[in-house]
Amino acid sequence: MSIPSAPHHPLTDTEVRRIRNDFPILDTQVNSRPLIYLDTGATSQNPVTVLEAEQEFYEQRNAAVHRGAHSLAVDATDAFEAARDTIAAFVGAAVDEIVWTSNATEAINLVAYSFSNATAGRGGSAAERFAIGPGDEIVVTEMEHHANLIPWQELAARTGATLRYIPVDDDGALRLDDAATIINQATAIVAFTHASNVLGTINPVAELVGLARKHGALTVLDACQSVPHLPVDVHALDIDFMAFSGHKMLGPTGIGVLYGRAELLNAMPPFLTGGSMITTVTMERAEYLPAPARFEAGTQRISQAIALAAAANYLTETGMQRIQQWEETLGQQLVDGLTQLPGIRVLGPAAGVPRIGLAAFDVDGVHAHDVGQFLDHQGIAVRVGHHCAQPLHRRLGLTATTRASTYLYNTSDEVDAFLTAVAGVRPFFGVK
Questions:
Q1: Which residue of the set 186, 388, 398, 423 is catalytic?
Q2: Which residue blocks in 245-285 are alpha helix, DSSP H?
């Protein structure tokens, strides 16, 4: 398939202002102020092309896929599978290595529950490689989102395996020296985030994958904060599984993606069972289709997949390298500005160290929820709370932070307006 080409010159504020015209919601007024949307880390906004792609499906192609023989069903199936082609190309995967899920959380649970089923003897001899039990270890990191922690806690509880984690230091960086001993001959799975949704840290995938490979462990990458913002090639990263969500990369909610090596997916027992994922069914047993169909039981997320493909095309046409560079610029602007304000503690890498375009921070003497409410009154949307990373916050001595996260549609002027607003938080609440 042909992949849209992207310009090579860096993004500028002038071009970003043109990009913003593709996002109707960015013209919204919030509390009688122009919306400054700095919460893409939670969910991104949608360009018109994405909205139109989903509407066009319902207006012209709406039918069940992989079931009907009539023309409308064939058109729907073709569009659905073309979307898979697009997403595979977007992350450098083969088309049969892309599984549709409802979100990244389901994608990670799919892997964990499939391994649990293999441990219970499902999947035959091909699945024995995924069985784990007492004596085996699952390794995560202390900076994980709950979606890449709790499924492994549950898998360990069901199988008797031990869950271990790579700690972070006082600045939130992974203690890689510890990782070299924590990942050992007992390690069966290493699951870690590519980019932290709290710290903005971009983790050393090659180093962690190398440690896992050394001991024959499988790797699972949480790419929710990297696939939307960085060029990602799954084969170049040499990972076994990767999960990401559509709603963080200009796509709709209700659609996520699991990448898995084809040979692994085809050996794994299914997670959800039912129609559309079988070859033969009797009253006693069933046989399952090859991947990815064996993991896509029931009616699929058809319009969402098509809209996600439109989102991927939009990002590709803009240029992922350009988006990464622009967000790095905005991320450094955030860190530089916040660290100059009194009473502000910024989490994650220091100014000058590469990060994705977000910054989480604590305001001394003011709860994060109050900070968020103060900013919202000025039309600035940010995220407050523990960002589904309670253990990380606890390690850093915090219960909650405020997070500003940028994307290709944010300007440097918006970041300046945000910094000006944050400078007014402590005076407003009478904190000296």
A1: 388
A2: 262-265
